Amino acid sequence: MYTSGCFDIFHYGHLNILVKSKELCNYLIVGVSTDELIEKEKGKRPIIPFEERVKVVQSIGLVDEVIAQTDKNKQRIVDEYRIDAISVGSDWKGKYPKVSCAMEYFDYTKNVSSTILREALKLNQG
User: Catalytic site residue 72?
Assistant: First the structure.
């Protein structure tokens, strides 16, 4: 199974999707967005640098392999890593790029997101 994200300011919602994903598979691959991809997609650099975000995801003990997510081409990942299923939050329903494998949607963890945390910590300056 594959899931991906920025994992900037790691929080309970991130942990929740990793736990639920691992419950459904024998081998979990997680794509962590590079700093460059985040800047391209969101127009701002992440708070936590790529290498540190990778170490956080690796340290959880649920993830079998962490790869750099350098673009949004999910089908390339499915083909390259022979992915059987992708897991994402339910907020992606109807918006996720078409792929040839199964999709598993988990309920979005309410009241927590990196955006909420950034605003609470006043980290949204430029």
Answer: no
20, 40, 44, 74: which one is catalytic? 44
Question: Does residue 125 sit within a domain?
Answer: no
Active site annotation includes 42: yes
Q: Are 90 and 107 in contact (CB under 8 A)?
A: yes
Per the CB < 8 A criterion, the answer to whether 73 and 96 are in contact is no
DSSP 35-91: HHHHHHHHSS--SS-HHHHHHHHHHTS--SEEEEE-SS-HHHHHHHHT-SEEEEEGG
| Structural domain total, the chain | 1
Is residue 105 in some structural domain? yes
What pLDDT is recorded for position 91? 84
- Specify the CATH number for the domain of residue 109: 3.40.50.620
Q: What is the pLDDT of residue 65?
A: 98
Per the listing, tokens 């300011």 go with 9
Q: Which residues of the chain have pLDDT under 50?
A: none
| Catalytic choice (42, 55, 72, 93) | 42
Token pair for 37? 């991809």
Q: Are 20 and 3 in contact (CB under 8 A)?
A: no
